[in-house]
TrEMBL record:
Organism listed in the record: Cephalotus follicularis
Family per similarity comment: Belongs to the heat shock protein 90 family.
Binding site for ATP: 34, 38, 82, 87, 95, 101-103, 122-127, 174, 386
Keyword Transcription: no
Name of the protein described by the UniProt record: Endoplasmin homolog
Keywords assigned: ATP-binding, Calcium, Chaperone, Endoplasmic reticulum, Glycoprotein, Nucleotide-binding, Signal
Subcellular location: Endoplasmic reticulum lumen
UniProt keyword annotation of Membrane present: no
Length: 624
């Protein structure tokens, strides 16, 4: 429409659209689930507002919180419509084109390397998937606070917005009209759409309808010659005839029937989903496949991998709630990128089946924000503002229980993973009965989310020991594999008091360290900590199972006493004294005789409370 106000897409959005338009990606189906997911979000929003203000829903059809799909085969239009919150003119401008979300460029980048469009929803740009199947899209929207507007674009770098003076008023909500491309004709087939809704949108909590054709049997007069004529005659006379036929049946059974049945096509709204809340069901009756599908729709993660673990439970007592938690198969692209200024929590909060929010960071501590899931509480009040809810006293209890359950769930990945148990302690029968599906799952978990466990040790003092049990690392004896603190302790030399570790940039670099020479020779095991976060971690993790941690590059390393120690100290007394004097006292704190070295004549160690050399390096790189 030439009259509309024109806007240019933000550059990254424009690039994204180009990629989508030209994509050879074969699974174009995903656009439908993205649109339905947006419709569902919009319905959640208006339902939430209606908790404190009933008026917002309006009356009649407007108050029906539902999603409708309609086809126009002649015009090749597929439309998806919701009675959700709708968008004001300003919303349309911002949300659909001018303000790029943080995920936009990340997604564009990902498309250029791996190209799996399936994850588009996770990046917050799902709407644009409409251009996989359409070359022209109209978005008609009506928000309670504004007039009805049409947004339209042919994905040519620009979009237009006009006040809608020609379509029928839609009441409230949004209707997306897709003008399908020639090669996307399959999306004009009712059955295809039904199949897609069933496949991808099973767990949408609002009814989804399709304007479906229905073959109905209609009785028409059977009098062949005159049938045309009679069909057009008024209905009362044909009714009379039916009656006559019925009445006359007994007396004249041989007389041929005067009506016949023909198929006629009509339309009606057909419901495609049954709106069930999976978390209300008995966990014993929910299949693994259902949990996986639920995870996918909740997390918008439609990759090929199943979640690594889940936990579905009911909490009872003074605070009652139901919850399902999932460990995703992969960490999201930005999990640690913006850890400290990212307040995104991934649990959805419901109160008595009504969706409240997914930005409720009071439910889980930051370090567990990689989990996905939902909480449905019966205890929290429904009709208060989000701010009031955030202050509610039962949140603390909910959070505590969620953390406990989450850690149990992660612990279970360890327990079920045959690679994690001590193979030596097992009989062959036990070994062969290990489920291969669970093998290596904990290593997988660790590679994706290990850093979160470390951050947990730093942040969550109450669960520090539980989290330390989940730590994995390489050591001088781990043989390229990951090992745990419990395994380390089981291998400690008799008489060894402390857990020994060293920090640095890589295992290869550390293996050459003079600090290790003698320790390795004497068969001590030393842990390699090579992640920058490890330095911080070790400031919080003081001990484990009554054993202290000792950085072998720091002062205080005590190996078994050597009878010659005292003798050596005496004979080199003059040398150490001279040396200390030569190096001005602000360069070194002390010069000592030590038994920690082998080939290397001397090393600089850090004092007990000082920063290790590695920490100095990290701090320097941060201030630069
Ligand atoms: P996301 O859903 O992850 O936010 P999308 O690209 O799917 O990303 O949608 C972008 C934005 O457009 C949404 O956040 C929402 O504000 C708006 N939007 C899209 N579809 C609808 C709709 N049916 N009703 C209301 N707002 C919508
Ligand atoms: Mg979306």
């Amino acid at each position: 429409r030439s009259s509309g106000e024109k806007f240019e897409f933000q550059a990254e959005v424009s690039r994204l659209m180009d990629i989508l338009i030209n994509s050879l990606y074969s699974n174009k189906d995903i656009f439908l689930r993205e649109l339905i997911s947006n419709a569902s979000d919009a319905l959640d929003k208006i339902r939430f507002l209606s908790l404190t203000d009933k008026e917002v829903l309006g009356e009649g059809d407007n108050a029906k919180l539902e999603i409708q799909i309609k086809l126009d085969k002649e015009k090749r239009i597929l439309s998806i419509r919701d009675r959700g919150i709708g968008m004001t003119k300003e919303d349309l401008i911002k949300n659909l084109g001018t303000i790029a979300k943080s995920g936009t460029s990340a997604f564009v980048e990902k498309m250029q390397t791996s190209g799996d469009l399936n994850l588009i929803g996770q990046f917050g740009v799902g709407f644009y998937s409409v251009y996989l199947v359409a070359d022209y899209v109209e978005v008609i929207s009506k928000h309670n606070d504004d007039k009805q507007y049409v947004w339209e674009s042919k994905a040519d770098g620009a979009f237009a917005i006009s006040e809608d003076t020609w379509n029928e008023p839609i009441g409230r909500g949004t209707e997306i009209r897709l003008h399908l491309r020639d090669e996307a004709g399959e999306y004009l087939e009712e059955n295809k759409l039904k199949e897609l809704v069933k496949k991808y949108s099973e767990f949408i909590n609002f009814p989804i309808y399709i304007w479906a054709t229905k073959e109905v049997d209609v009785e028409v007069p059977a009098d062949d010659e005159s049938s045309d004529e009679e069909e057009t005659s008024d209905s009362s006379s044909s009714e009379d005839e039916d009656k006559e036929a019925e009445e006359g049946e007994d007396e004249d059974a041989e007389q041929k029937p005067k009506t016949k049945t023909v198929k006629e096509t009509t339309y009606e709204w057909e419901l495609l989903n049954d709106v069930k809340a999976i978390w209300l069901r008995n966990p014993k009756e929910v299949t693994d496949e259902e949990y996986t599908k639920f995870y996918q729709s909740l997390a918008k993660d439609f990759g090929d991998e199943k979640p690594l673990a889940w936990s579905h439970f009911t909490a009872e007592g003074d605070v009652e709630f139901k919850a399902i938690l999932f460990v995703p198969p992969k960490a999201p692209h930005d999990l640690y990128e913006s850890y400290y200024n990212n307040n995104k929590a991934n649990l959805k909060l419901y109160v008595r089946r009504v969706f409240i929010s997914e930005e409720f960071d009071e439910l889980l501590p930051k370090y567990l924000s990689f989990l996905k899931g939902l909480v449905d509480s019966d205890t929290l009040p429904l009709n208060v503002s989000r701010e009031m809810l955030q202050q509610h006293s039962s949140l603390k209890t909910i959070k505590k229980k969620l953390i406990r359950k989450a850690l149990d769930m992660i612990r279970k990945i360890v327990d079920e993973d045959p690679d994690e148990s001590n193979e030596k302690d097992k009989t062959d029968v036990e070994k062969s009965s290990d489920s291969d599906e669970k093998r290596g799952q904990y290593t997988k978990f660790w590679n994706e989310f290990g850093k979160s466990i470390k951050l947990g040790i730093i942040e969550d003092a109450a669960n520090r020991n539980r989290l330390a049990k989940l730590l994995r690392f390489e050591s001088t004896k781990s043989d390229g594999k990951l090992t745990s603190l419990d395994q380390y302790i089981s291998r400690m030399k008799s008489g060894q008091k402390d857990i020994l570790y060293i920090t640095g940039t890589s295992k290869e670099q550390l293996e050459k360290s003079p600090f290790l020479e003698r320790l390795v020779k004497k068969n001590y095991e030393v842990i390699f900590f090579t992640d920058p976060v490890d330095e911080y971690l070790m400031q919080y993790l003081m001990d484990y199972e009554d054993k202290k941690f000792q950085n072998v590059s720091k002062e205080g390393l005590k190996l078994g006493k050597d009878s010659k120690d005292k003798e050596l100290k005496e004979s080199f007394k003059e040398l150490t004294k001279w040396w200390k004097g030569e190096l001005a006292s602000d360069n070194v704190a002390d010069v000592k005789i030590s038994n920690r070295l082998d080939n290397t004549p001397c090393v600089v160690v850090t004092s007990k409370f000082g920063w290790s050399a590695n920490m100095e390096r990290i701090m320097q790189s941060q201030t630069l």
